[in-house]
Design goal:
Pfam families: ketoacyl-synt (PF00109). The chain has 95 residues and is mainly alpha-helical. The protein has helices spanning 20-28, 70-75, 78-94, and strands at 34-35, 52-53. It has 3 helices and 2 strands, in the order H-E-E-H-H.
């Protein structure tokens, strides 16, 4: 019996990209994905390097779609928001 592996859905968030397709296009075209802006943390905060890749729009979530109350959505950790979105997109991509 062979142990076959099937990847049937994929999604993700990458620096300066909304999805894997935008990320791939930027990689292929040599677009710089690191920046030195203070969008998320001040430059040099806790010894962070001056240049880093930052994910776009971490503060947004479609609370109604995910059946979250407004207050719950406002206080949900951005990583959990991204997890909800990426898991849904992966399942959608898998068909």
């Amino acid at each position: 019996m062979d142990d076959d592996i099937v990847i049937s859905g994929i999604a993700g968030r990458y620096p300066e990209s909304d999805d894997i397709y935008e990320f791939w296009e930027k990689l292929v075209n040599g677009v710089e994905l690191n920046s030195s802006d203070a969008r998320r943390w001040p430059v040099g905060y806790l010894g962070l390097p001056p240049y880093s890749g930052k994910i776009k729009s971490i503060e947004k979530i479609d609370a109604d779609f995910f059946k979250l109350g407004r207050k719950e959505a406002d206080f949900t950790d951005p990583q959990i928001r991204l997890l909800y979105e990426v898991v849904y997109e992966t399942i959608w991509d898998a068909g």
